[in-house]
Amino acid sequence: MKRLIVITLFLLAATAFITFKYFKNLNTSGMHAGNIIRTIPDNAAVVFEFTNEKSFYDIYNGNDLLKNLIGGQKISELDTVRKVLFGSTELGTSFNGRNVFISVHPLTTNQPDLLLTTSAAKDFDIARFDNLAAKQKAGMLITPLKIGEKRGYNIYFNSLKKRFYIINIDANIFSGSFSKELITLYANYKADRDKQAFMLLPDQQNSNSLANLYINYQRLGPLFSQLFKNSNTDIFKPFRLLPALAALNLNFKNDAIMFSGYSNIQTNKPGTYLNIFAKQQPVTNQLKDLYPATTAYAVNLAVSDPVKFSADLSEFYTNAGLHAEKDALFTKIKTETGLSLQREFANLLGNEFAVVTTRYQERIAIISVKNGSKLKPFVNNISRMITDDGGQFNYSKVPYFLLGDVFSAFKKPYFRVIDNYLILANSIKELDSYNDTYFNRKFLNKTQQYVKFDNLQAERSNVAFFMNFKNAQQILKNGLTDDYYSAYKNNPLSWKNFYAASYQFAATDKNFYTNFCLLQNQPDTVVNKKSD
């Protein structure tokens, strides 16, 4: 009996020790990851984190997903840094198993570039770089570098014929880049400990994740400005204005890149249009089934309480200083038609509304309503009728003040009521085009690729952005800078190898649960459906 008690006590002690060590390692890893990400300059828009270990690289060995995401040239450069520099005998053991952060930064050269940030083991001696430099035929030439107070090295890779700059930023934290401008920015950067540029994951979640994606939404604007000729492009514009930080985990799939997690709204910053949707409940998305087969990109918005949405939107316009203009419009309509437009429309509004841009740059708004028959006489009162079920609004900016920012392109649109949908367009031709799509069922969801893609998306959301890369090609050609479109179109590894992308927000506790999905291209066929 005494022996049994001793054995039991020994096992309990051993279990306690192992548990302590396990969670101690988790906390150390997570805390150190937090220390590293805080050193990254806060002009970064996106940060990708993974662990520098063989198991991670083995997962994507022979798989082009990450290569298409980051680009063939950038992957080749990063792979050279990993294998030739950090894979060397002198450095390998000190950097293996460490958190690695790849951040994207806009630069004054109008060419965004990547910053690689990681840490070495605590016992690492920077003199190992000097030992490596003394070696002959190592595939690189290493010379000392000093930027301000920071010590580092200038590394010339023979295979790339390109220089890589690395500095010791703090304690055992190192950062490197192929951009001299970016590494200089980093060397001179003073982190504000009281300012949060990125949302951090809990320690255990960070340690157990295969890879993570961190996003500062309001930093996407400067990045888009360097990618597009017109910095004010409407592609995902509300997404780029949202005052929020995201921390998303990678969900592994062989043919898709999928991240999910939370986007937390920064309450100390002015609210934007998308903030309104955080006050709703997630809604099952059905309007996407009405997207034309020619859809290039779209934004779908969903509200559980249309009346509350209308009131919150009105408050948003008041805070934005547009109260007088909005009230003047609705007062004029009331005087001339006797219609309380805002109140009546809110009572008829359904749970979803979307704006779709097609490959021909047609712009269509699809708005679900509770009863199309009741809507017709209501909308007739504010319009010049052309047919029995359609016409043109008599008043400017009505859709904008009724439904918000994404409808700003529809000044005095043409409209048609089809079943329980109000369709808006800026020309009769665009309206007729969608009419043909609707009645001849020429929808995007008739293809197998879209069906597979849709199966990867969350069923419910409040805000959903969508892009079909093949349909968007001409728009990207017109919009991207020449260099970036050439890289997109001509490089064998680029985003053109993805079928589509989606980014979904579902309201939860006044923030957003977030899903990001990129599906790789596959041979496409038409879905054959038997008629009833």
Task: List its salient traits.
20-stranded antiparallel beta sheet; disordered N terminus; alpha+beta; 22 strands; 532 residues
What's the end-to-end separation, in Å? 76 Å
Strand percentage? 25-35%
Report low-confidence residues grouped into runs of 5 or more. 1-31
As a whole number of angstroms, the C-alpha radius of gyration is 27 Å
Query: What value does the average pLDDT take?
Result: 88
Largest sheet: 20 strands, antiparallel
Helicity range = 25-40%
Task: Find the count of extended strands (DSSP E, 2+ residues).
Answer: 22
Helix- and strand-based class? alpha+beta
Summarize this structure briefly.
This protein is α+β, with helices and mostly antiparallel strands and about 525 residues long. Helix content is about 35%, strand content about 30%.
What does this structure look like?
It contains 19 helices and 22 strands. The protein has 532 residues and is α+β, with helices and mostly antiparallel strands. Helix content is 36%, strand content 28%. It has a 20-stranded antiparallel beta sheet, sandwiched between helices. A two-stranded antiparallel ribbon has the order 11-19. The longest helix has 36 residues, at 2-37.
